[in-house]
Amino acid sequence: MHSDFIIVGFSNFPSLQIAFMLFFLVSYMTTLIANLFLIALITLSTLLVTPMYFFLFNLAMLDITYTSVTSPKLICMFIMANSTMSHWECVTQYTFFVAFTSVEYFLLTVMSYDRYVAVCRPLHYHMVLSRRFCGVASLLVWIGGFIFCIPISVTTSRNIYCSSNVINHFFCDVAILLELSCTSTDSTQNIILFEGALFLTTCFFPTVISYVFIISTVSKIKSLSGKHKAFSTCASHLFTVVLFYSVIFTLYMMPRASLTQNQRKVISVLFSNVIPMVNPLVYSLRNKDIKRALKTVIRHYTIV
Q1: Are 171 and 7 within 8 A, CB to CB?
Q2: Which CATH architecture has domain 4-303?
Q3: From start to end of the chain, where are the E strands?
């Protein structure tokens, strides 16, 4: 049994190593700065106290922790020119990766319900999405994500990797680890199929149904400006949902033979590095509440 794994990363592009290192370093720093900015602004501003921004606060925290699972280790590999990873480092990495992916499933679903209530039941918004509801929902989202990762983590960690210890990826991906295992992976694959079906019914379908109702409600608004105002409140979340599920579907639902390993790496970069970096920008750049809150906070602390 191999005690260490060798992470191939992007070593098959030797002339681009510096470019890859700079990309991951800049994207990671941008993710940290942009999401910390959003967290600080939501915390400091009295204008951003709605349920939407409470969940956006959670999403910003998730984006930081999510990208921190893979990026720092990868950057260290570039700098130290050392691509080895111990078995337990690998177990820890894919455990948190699966956990935070699960948390994002749940969080985006709760956020879609938030947008449904805001558009379809605006008069009951603060009553339905009370502070208690938001707190309990947020707690369940994080706990649920970690509960879902335990069965996969436990069964995969028991596998024996005797044929090869080379992981042709830039992090410990469960799918590749299953391919390298010398022992039976049936239990892990069954768990993945079961949880995938569960996510489909508890996260994907409710999100789609929420947007069916939202689109139906918006289409009944007579004025063009009213339609634009109603749908603009959902645009950022819809963009995040479409991007997230598109990448998930491409990586884990399509037949593995339909993509080369290099293509999978590129799509995984989009999933683990680009989405966490883009999310705070998408939610901030065209958001009038964020801009107004930023001006208020700057004015307050400048005067003080």
Answers
A1: yes
A2: Up-down Bundle (1.20)
A3: 4-7, 84-86, 166-167
